[in-house]
Amino acid sequence: MKIINITLFVLVSCVFSTHAYTISNHVAVEYHIVAGSYTWDEAIAECASLGGTLARIPDKRTDDFITQYIRDSGLGDQVDTGFWIGLNDRNEEDNFKWINGGEVCYTNWGEGEPDNNTNKNPQGQDCGQLRKTTDFKWDDEYCTGVDIREKGFICEVQACSCSKCPEP
Ligand SMILES: [Ca+2]
Ligand SMILES: [Ca+2]
Questions:
Q1: CA 34, CA 54: separation in Å to the nearest integer?
Q2: 76-92 residue pLDDT tens
Q3: What pTM, to 2 d.p., does this model score?
Q4: How far, in Å, is the centroid of ligand 2 from the Cα of 63?
Q5: 20, 162 Cβ separation under 8 angstroms
Q6: I want to staple 28 with a disulfide (CB 3.0 to 4.6 A). Which of 4, 18, 142, 159 is the partner?
Q7: C-type lectin domain spans which residues (predicted)?
Q8: 25-64 burial, b for 16+ CB within 10 Å, e for fewer?
Q9: 70 φ, ψ to 5°?
Q10: How close is the Cα of 149 to the center of ligand 2, in Å?
Q11: Where are the chain's structural domains?
């Protein structure tokens, strides 16, 4: 397992429901990009051990930053299929939410996604990934039960409390 920590200041462009995002427009967020092979549930547990939740990607700037880093660092070469992110529609089909709360302000689905593909699992696909074969555009993926779909993940950790955030 190789963990890369990157920090950036995210300009949050819409109002989120969680306390951390209602105080300031500028929040220091640390993204842990973890290559390896994890199920969705394993990724959630491993991310929690790092003090975070599977990542939310609030805007194109953040998306570009993360995917460019994945490419440049070579971490993308170290995963079979991609990286889990916090997006999912497990509670209600086709109603995608971030696992740590907040509105879905921005998406970057690959062509034809999300398709809730049921070919290999009748429950369909409810968990979000940055998919390797589409240059890390977004895809809905089987959450469980398909061992070959284990992947890396991106974990989001608040780098500081908002009241103590440095000025960007
Ligand atoms: Ca689905
Ligand atoms: Ca899909």
A1: 11
A2: 999 999 999 999 999 99
A3: 0.81
A4: 19
A5: yes
A6: 159
A7: 31-143
A8: eebbbbbbbbbbbbbbeebbebbeeeebbbbbbbeeebbe
A9: -60, -40
A10: 12
A11: 2-163
